[in-house]
Amino acid sequence: MFDPFVLAALIAGIFFLFYQFINRKYQFFAERGIPYVKPTFLLGNGASVLLKRENIMQNMQKMYNSHPNAKIIGLFDFVKPTMMIRDPDAIKQIGVKDFDHFIDHAPLFTQADRDDVGTESLFGNSLVALRGQKWRDMRATLSPAFTGSKMRYMFELVLDCAQSTTEFFREEAKAGRTMEYEMKDLFSRFSTDVIGSVAFGIKVDSLREQDNDFFVKGKAMLNFQNLRTLVKIILLRVAPSLMNRLKVDISSSKMNAYFKGMILDNMKQRKVHGIVRNDMINILMQVQEGALKHQKDEQDAKDAGFATVEESSVGKSIHSHVWSENELVAQCFLFFLAGFDTMSTCLTFLSYELLVNPDIQQKLYEEIMAVEDSLNGKPLSYEVLQKMQYLDMVVSETLRLWPPAPFTDRYCVKDYVYDDGQGTRISINKGQLIWFPITALHHDPKYFPNPDKFDPERFSEQNRGKINPATYIPFGVGPRNCIGSRFALMEVKAVVYHLVKNFTLERSQKSKIPLQLVKSFIGMAAEGGMWLEFKPRA
In angstroms, rounded to a whole number, what is the distance separating the alpha carbons of residues 112 and 192? Predict the structure, then answer.
C-alpha cells in the first residue's frame, strides 16, 4: 500500500516535470532573441479565442500589433513555436521567391517528413492537404481546370443557380411574404446549389427544398462549432501521425462514402450514356483519360478581377502521375469544403456592407442597370460580368475588410535563413511553422488608411496601383495560393448582380448593426446571424 504522502509527492513531481517540459518549449523564441507574444500555459496564444474571450480576427490583430517594428515575431500554436511574418518584403521573400523552402501547409494525416498521406481520407488527399511532389503534381493536374477559358464554360451553371435564387425571391414577393432572411444560411444554400451543379453534377434546389439530403449532409459535415469536430481538428493539428494511425478524419467514413459514391456513380453514368457537361466531373474524366492540358489563355489576365491570383510555374509543369479514383474524388470533396463556407462567408459580409452603405449599394445598382441596358435583352455573359469595374471594387474591398481566412500557414521543409540585409537575420529550421496574417495586414493603417471603413474606391483604377500586392492576400501567397480564385469571384459576382438588380437590401427587425463576430476558434460568423430584408425594386 502506497503511503499517501509519497503518492502525493510523486504526483506533484510528475506535474512539476510536465510544467517544466512545457515551459521549456515556451522559451524557444527568448533563447533565439526573437520578439514573441507571451503564451498561456498549454493553450498558447490562442487561449483567448478557445476560451471565447475574443474572436479570431481580434486575436490575430492583437498578436500582429504586439511588436509593430518587428518583421518576424514568435507565437505559440498551443505549445508549437510558430513565426508570424509581418513585413511585406519578408512575405514576398519567403512566400514567393524562396517558396521551395516552404512548399507545404502544416502537416495533417501524415508524418512531417512524408509526402504520401497513406490514407483513404478524402480531405487528406485533397489539394490543400497534399505535400511535396504529390502536391506539385496535383496542382499541375488541376490548374488547367481553373483558367478563364474553363470559367466561361462553367459560368452557365453558376448563372443558372444565381437566376434560380433570384426567381425564388420573386415568387416569395408575389405571394406577399416578408422576405427577411439570415444571410449565412441563404448563401450557404446558394453555394450548395452551385457546388452540387459544378462539382457533383447534380441538380440541387436548397431554397425550395430546405431539407434536401445534399445540403443537410454538407452542413452537418462542416459544422465546425460542433464540439466533436473541434476536438478532431485540434488533435489533427497537435498529433497528425497518431490521428492517421487511428484513421481519424475530419468527416465520418459514412459521409465520405456518401460523397464518393455520388461522384463515382455520376462518372459511370456519363461514360455509359456519353453525357458531356461542363463541370468538375467532366474535368476529372478528362484527367483520367490524360486529355486535360494547360493551354495559354491570353484572355486570362484581362478578365481577372483585382483579387484573382495568378498561377505559378508549378501549376503549368508537366508530370506523369497517375491518380487513383479516391485521389480524384477528393478534389470534388475539397470543392465542397472550400465553396460551402468561404463563399457563403464572403457573400454574408458583402451583403452586410451593402446594407449599411446604401450609397454604395445604389452606385452598384446603377452599374448593373447600365450593363443591363447594354445587353439589349441578351443574357449576362462571363466576359461582361468580368468587365464590371465597380462590382469588382466592391468584392475586392469585402475580401480586404472581411477575408474568409484570417491567416494562412506554411511549413518549412528545409533549413532556411531569412536575411533582409538590414540587420534582421533569423534562422528558420526544418519543421518550423510560419503564418502570414491576412486579416492583420488588411487592417494595417500603414497599407490601408482608415482600415475599418468599407471603401471600394481603394480598388479603383486610380488607386489600385498604390496597393502593395504582399499586403492584400485574400487568396493566399505564392505558388500555394488558392487555385479557385477565378471561380470564387465569378460565383460571388453572379449572385450579387442578380440580387441587387432585382431587390434592395434593407434593415429588418433582426438586423444587428454594428455587426459582431462570434468568438470562435474556426471560421467567421456574425453573432446572432446577419439578417436583412429583400424588397423588390419598382
Answer: 34
